[in-house]
Amino acid sequence: MAINIQPEYYTNTNYIYDMTGRNSMIYCATNGGFAAFDNQSNGFMALTNTDGLQKNVQNSVSLDSSGHVWIGNDLGLALVENDFSSIHVYPVECLTCTRTQEIVCSKDSIYVGSSNGLLFIDTKGTPLNFDDDTQIKLFDLPCNDIRSIALDDTSVWVGTATGGILRFSKDFLTMNNYTIADGLLTNEINELIFFEAQLYVATDAGLNIFAIDHFDTLLTNYQINALSYLGDSLVLGLDQDQQVGVFYGGVVTIIRNGLPWQSRVLALLNLNGILHCGLGNRYTKDYHGDGIGTYDASGNVWAITKNQCIPSNHISEITSNEHGVFVACGNRVDESKGAGWLNNQYLWINFSSDSILPSNRVHRCATAPDGKVWFGYNPFPDNSSSIMASCFDPAHNQWDSLPNRYNGMEGCEAIWDIEFDTDQNMYLALAGPTDKLWLIDSALDVVYHLNPQFGVFNVEIALDSSGKIWRSLTDAGLLMTDTRNTLFDRADDEYRNYTTADGLISNYMRGCVVGKNNSLYVAADEGLVIYDDTGFSNRTDISDSELLDVELDSQGRIWILARDGVYWLDPVADIVRNWRFSDHNIEINFLQSIGEMIQVQGFDFDPIRNCFWAGGENGLLKLTIQYDSIPEIGAATVYPNPVRQGVVRIKDIPSDASVDIYTISGRRVAQGLMPDAAFGEVVWEIPQDVPSGMYFALVKSDQGNTTYKFAIIR
Questions:
Q1: CA dist list (Å): 683 to 572, 647, 670, 679, 708
Q2: Beta 558-562 vs 565-570: how paired, if at all?
Q3: Which of 165, 278, 288, 416 shows a CA-CA span of 20 to 30 A to 530?
Q4: Spatial distance between the Cα atoms of 334 and 362, rounded to a whole number of angstroms
Q5: Would you tell me how many other CB atoms lie within 10 Å of the CB of residue 559?
């Protein structure tokens, strides 16, 4: 069976870098893709990297005369068809540079500013056909870093990062360069706009206006990032304190009532006489934003509209269950955004300190066997916060909490990881000053500290069936506590720290998981570490890049998340397969492994939705497992054959099939085996009392019945 993966991104699209519009539609270049907002129905639509864009973060957007949307990012230029049905990526070889920073459309002409020059495209009235386009590329300019473009009847005006303003004739045969010598306040241009036939220039030093052959100064001591108009007044996008101002008669009137405090105003748009602004946030990262502001001039107040989407594009952990998918979107800084719940109707319900959570710094989440979801916080460096973890019961919409210093536990700065065993006992790896692994029984009554205390960042906890508790460490290998399955009897515990001296390929461990064979699998920076009854072994044939996390699927395969893709290892058949991000034009970024920043960002197998979920810095990536669910009845394969270990698989069978197993003499030893929902395979875990010999698998389907012979060798 050939496993195929269908990717789909869920992103935050509320950090708006640029905007344009027509009629009731506002089109936005955002941190999470291209977003379209209908301000009549208040509905959003978003397109992301998995829909065909080169990446999620978009820099600029413009609308052509056919209603198609041109959008630019750091990997190039793309066209979104006017019904949003298709995305067409413009040929890279036709660009001046892939980093597209500004786009202006005028009839059949597209003007594109990049970090390395100006591009003119004549679409010849066929914008969807790139083959007949004519391009003019302009390099070797006084400054090639283009920030803004404005058009009048005779000229193309170009604002640059350090070279002032360039004025081209429409045929690009002549050029004039205006700088501070010609009256500009600075050569660093933020935006150009024509308003009432006058060219206005926004800079960090103030506002200029063009006057025949030079620039006059209208305003100083204002940082102006964006320009638009309202009535007969110019509108200024200002710094984070002042945000928006109206300029009329030489006076600036600040209009920020209703805007989120210190949120960056990155774009302004007058659409049908109504003023809108595109907001960023007040933090340093663009993981999430404050959406679209719409100005009510009569009430002098802004109304804010946000897409109901994932809280943040920074994911720190993922857990899935029958109620949906939950993500932690926090770390140790104030830009954390709490947690989100993608329910079974595929609607986002977000939790934050503005609603129910005591803190937005939600670092970890896990589903307990009873279906409740636990969220662990990272208030670093504060170890005196009142709440250490919160618990949500999605079946009854009820919340509870676990206080810091619960039942004699020491105060902690962060929860490194949360895990549960099948008996509902909770394991908490806590950061300093405790630096301990704590065990809380299923009644949340008995609390134990499990030795040893180890002052190293714990990446992840894994539990095996023999009573061993494993912890992967940032730079100190693996830590094992053997409870000998007497969990609440500390007297017989043994523990050990394993490092490269014990056979590990590296001391830099990432995510870990215990397989169906009770072996431990650990992602490391240099390969996959495996521990079984014989000791440690290492595999370096998985990926050339750093391994980040490991997961177990419903058939016992080991799935590995690496920086360059997803890999799966069949430990029985000893087969490794891969699905690399670059092969499918998927852009995903992860935190860099620096000191304590070595941590997983969420990798979860979801048997209910037949997919994996992966978190990073670009949003939540869903990887749906796809296979041919209606193969011919005679196309099945039994593997491995012969079977030398305890599992046999039957692949490429119809989805309605069931399988019975018979000995060569006709005695039935297994019946009613059904294909796995995610992968479409039957997995038979061979009982110990089944001896070596020849066997038959009877595959029964509406298509008919057929048998397959295989051997078991003990």
A1: 12, 7, 11, 10, 15
A2: antiparallel
A3: 416
A4: 11
A5: 21
Q: And the tokens for 360? A: 């937005």
How would you write 224-236 as a 3-class SS string?
CCEEEEECCEEEE
CA distance 629 to 611: 15
117, 85, 81: which is closest to 98 by C-alpha? 117
Percent of the chain scoring above 70 in pLDDT: 98
pLDDT of residue 629: 61
**162-203 per-position pLDDT tens digit:** 999 999 999 999 999 999 999 999 999 999 999 999 999 999
| Contact between 54 and 92 (Cβ < 8 Å) | no
**Could you tell me the pLDDT band of residue 379, with boundaries at 50, 70 and 90?**
confident
Whether the Cβ atoms of residue 312 and residue 288 lie closer than 8 Å to each other: yes
Q: How far is CA 629 from CA 72, 241, 350, 681, 683, in A?
A: 39, 58, 35, 10, 16
| Domain annotation for the chain: domains and CATH numbers | 8-228 (2.130.10.10), 229-307 (no CATH), 458-588 (2.130.10.10), 634-712 (2.60.40.1220)
Exposure string of 166-179, with b = 16+ CB inside 10 Å and e = fewer, is: bbbeeeeeeeebbb
N residues, the chain: 714
Q: Which residue has the tokens 């946030």?
A: 281
pTM > 0.70: yes
- What average pLDDT does range 403-413 have in this prediction? 89
pLDDT digit string (tens) for 229-272? 999 999 999 999 999 999 999 999 999 999 999 999 999 999 99
* SS3 letters across 501-565: HHCCCCCCEEEEEECCCCCEEEEECCEEEEEECCEEEEECCCCCCCEEEEEECCCCCEEEEECCE
